[in-house]
User: Which sequence fits this backbone?
C-alpha cells in the first residue's frame, strides 16, 4: 500500500469526491438529475435500452474535461511519448488499486472474495493489442489476486453516447455463475458500461458493480449539475471514504477558490 500512497498522494488535488446517493444525486451514476428526480436523464435512457443493466456504479472521482484528471485518463492511452504513457498508467493503476484495496466490500458486498473475476470494458474504437486499462490492472495482481480476465470484445452493434445495446459487446469466455466486477476508466453517459454489463449478465454472470476512475461532469450543462460540481469541489478528496458509504461527505477544502 505504501507504493500506492506514494503514487497517488501528490495528486490528491486532481480528484473530486463523489457524493453519496441522495437528493440532487443520481441513484445510479452519482451525477446530477433534474430537480425532483432520483435518476439523471442519461441513466434513465441508457438503462432502458439494455435487458440487464446494472444499478451499482461506483465512480472514484468526478472530473471536468478541462481538468488534469482528464489529461491523465486520455494520455495514459494515447500519450505522445512512452514516458508520458508510463507515468499516467502508474497513476491510473495506483488510483484503482488504492481505492479497491480500501473499499472492495463497499463496492461489491461482504462476500469473500467480493468478486470472482474482474473485467475491463474493451475499446470500441479499433485499438490494437491489450487495452491500456488491462495493462494497468495487471500491475495490481499482487494486491488484487489473479482475477483479471479478458471477458469481452466489441460486438456487432456500435455503442455511442446515450446509445446502449445488448449486442454492443460479445462475451468471449464462460461466465455462467461468476460474480464479475466491471471496470472502466471513464463514465459519461453510461452506454458502454451498461452494454457490457448487460452482455455479461445475459451470458449468465452477475455483475456485482461497475467501478470507474472518473465520472465526467459538465457544470455548464444545467443548474443542477453546476450545483453538484460546486458542492463536490468544496470538499477535500480522500481515499478513506467512498460514495457508497452513507454520510461520506468529506472535510472542506482549504482552497475554496479552486474551480
Assistant:
Amino acid at each position: 500500500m505504501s507504493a500506492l500512497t506514494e503514487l497517488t498522494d501528490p495528486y490528491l488535488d486532481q480528484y473530486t469526491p463523489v457524493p453519496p446517493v441522495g437528493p440532487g444525486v443520481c441513484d445510479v451514476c452519482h451525477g446530477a438529475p433534474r430537480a425532483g428526480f432520483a435518476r439523471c436523464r442519461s441513466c434513465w435512457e441508457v438503462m432502458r435500452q439494455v435487458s440487464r443493466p446494472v444499478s451499482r456504479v461506483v465512480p472514484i472521482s468526478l472530473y471536468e474535461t478541462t481538468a488534469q484528471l482528464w489529461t491523465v485518463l486520455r494520455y495514459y492511452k494515447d500519450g505522445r511519448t512512452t514516458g508520458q504513457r508510463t507515468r499516467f498508467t502508474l497513476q491510473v493503476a495506483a488510483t484503482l488499486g488504492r481505492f479497491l484495496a480500501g473499499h472492495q466490500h463497499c463496492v461489491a458486498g461482504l462476500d469473500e472474495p467480493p468478486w470472482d473475476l474482474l473485467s475491463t470494458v474493451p475499446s470500441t474504437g479499433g485499438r490494437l493489442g491489450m487495452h491500456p486499462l488491462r495493462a494497468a490492472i495487471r500491475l495490481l495482481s499482487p494486491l488484487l489476486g489473479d482475477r483479471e480476465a479478458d471477458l469481452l470484445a466489441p460486438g456487432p452493434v456500435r455503442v455511442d453516447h446515450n446509445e446502449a445495446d445488448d449486442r454492443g459487446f460479445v462475451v468471449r469466455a464462460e461466465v455462467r455463475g461468476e460474480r464479475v466486477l466491471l471496470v472502466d476508466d471513464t463514465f459519461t453517459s453510461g452506454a458502454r458500461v451498461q452494454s457490457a454489463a448487460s452482455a455479461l449478465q445475459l451470458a449468465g454472470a452477475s455483475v456485482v458493480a461497475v467501478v470507474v476512475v472518473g465520472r465526467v461532469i459538465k457544470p455548464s450543462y444545467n443548474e443542477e449539475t453546476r450545483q453538484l460540481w460546486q458542492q463536490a469541489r468544496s470538499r477535500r478528496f480522500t481515499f478513506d471514504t467512498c460514495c457508497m458509504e452513507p454520510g461520506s461527505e468529506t472535510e472542506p477544502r482549504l482552497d475554496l477558490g479552486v474551480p
Confidence is low (pLDDT under 50) at residues 254-259. The first helix runs from residue 2 to 8. The longest strand covers residues 206-216.
